[in-house]
C-alpha cells in the first residue's frame, strides 16, 4: 500500500446490503438451500431445522454441511449460489455507483460470506465492481474456511486489506451478529436494518439502506 493511499478502509457487505433484501435473492437462495438438504434425503421439517441450526451455529449452512455431511462446498456453490438468475433480480444501480464513487479519503473493500463467484456476479450486476479495491470472501477451496461472524475472519480481512489498526476500519452489513463482532473488535459499524424489526441496537449507527451512509458518516463525502 503506497503512502499516498488513504489509510482508512470501509468494508462493505454485499448480499442484502448493497441491494435490499426485498429483491427476492434472499428468498430464492433459501429455497435452493432447502432443496439441497432435501436432495440429501432430509424430510422437510428436518431440512428446515438443520438449515437454521447450521446457519446459527456456523454462520453459513454450508459450513455445517461440510463439517457434518462431507459436502463439497464448490459443488454446493455451483448448485445454490451460482444457480440464482441474478439478471432476474438485479440491474445496474446508478445511485449506488454514484454514492460509492463520490467517497473521499477512504479505501473501499467488499467483505462477503459468499464465495468469490457469487460476490463478483453481484458486483458486476449492480455495475459497481470497479469501485472496490479488493474483495474478501469465504474461500471454499480452503479446508475449514472462515466466515462472518468468526473473529478470525475479520483479522484475515484486515490483513488482506493491509490495515492493522481497527480504529481505521469501517463496516456496513445487514447482519446484527456480524455488526456485533466488528464493534467488538473496535471497528465503526453501521447496521442496515431495511424494513426488518430489530431488537436492540447493533453497531454505532442504524440505517434503512446502504445509500443512507452519507447521513451517518458524512465525512466520507466531504470535499477535500
UniProtKB/TrEMBL annotation:
Query: GO molecular function, one example?
Result: nucleotidase activity
- An individual GO BP term: pyrimidine nucleobase metabolic process
Which parts of the chain are coiled coil? Answer: none
Pfam families associated with the record: Hydrolase (PF00702)
Its domain of life reads: Eukaryota
UniProt-recorded name of the protein: Pyrimidine 5'-nucleotidase
